[in-house]
Please model this.
Amino acid sequence: MSMSDKRKRVRTDSGGPASISFGATGSNASGKHNQHRTRDNEFWFEDGNVIVVAGNVEFRVFKGILADHSPVMRDMFSLPQPRSESSQVSVVLPCPVVDVTDAPEDIRHILRLCIPKSESMLSPFSRNKFSYDMVSAVIRLGHKYQMSQLVDHAIAFLKGHFSDKFAVWANHKSCGFPDFEPVHSIGVVNLARLTGETSLLPTALLACCALGKEIAQGFRRDNGTREYLSSGDVGRCFSAHGRLVGEYIRIALTVFNPVISDGCTRQRRCRTKFQAFVNGFKAGADKVEAPYVFVKSLHRSLRFVYPDFNLCESCEEMVEKRAIDEQLALWKQLPEIMDITVHGWGEAM
Model:
């Protein structure tokens, strides 16, 4: 079963996601010229056989290509072409015009994948860099127009970072892709909610927990709209943040519990180092704000309170194992911490 088969199917109202009319470019359904419309510089093909109008932008493209990607559009294009009435004659205008309610920026993102102007790729998401706005548009419009293959590619792309596998998440240097900002984790939460891809939620919400005031302010998409977390997810993040800070402190004190390893070669020195760390960390524990508990080499990143923290090789191996064991145990609890249910979470670490 494909990923799209398991997702919530889009609900299409009786009127569909777009209205279809017929006329020349710059004309509305009644044939009246609309002087405010402009041709898109990127997607206007003189031999195109359909004009998609989004906002005040017209895209002249190819029905067959869009119909191959979207059964919703295929159904729209199958509607009979009406005739244009005038006082003298009734004619069939050559190019159908489809008005959609989507932003032109979003339509452009979709067309870049459906009608690529560069070398074809097995997966349109196989390149290293894609903006959040492009991925978001593909998932939102792909869900709306039932472009299941594009949605599958986009979801798989997000799972490359917002993973249910601890090793994948911990190996990333930051909470996002190179062309994503941390605040875009808000959008990833909303995309997961839209498509029913619950495995994206724990890490996307975790990334939201590290945001400051942006968690309430949201962010602006390139189409001009603003995106926010739902009030329920904001509440989940506030609740989880407090618990994660507490777990971060607990894990730090557990990892550096001043009990040396059995094979310690510098017992007195290592005991002194352990105790100094614990004393220093407790003194600054009230200043912990961002719960970066699921990072690679946690046992090293925790040493910011005591940079001159050198242990013998045996004790180093011990604290590394302690850290990984604590992280894995907490990782399995992450959905519960975020107050969500994800079946199969933690089975593959």
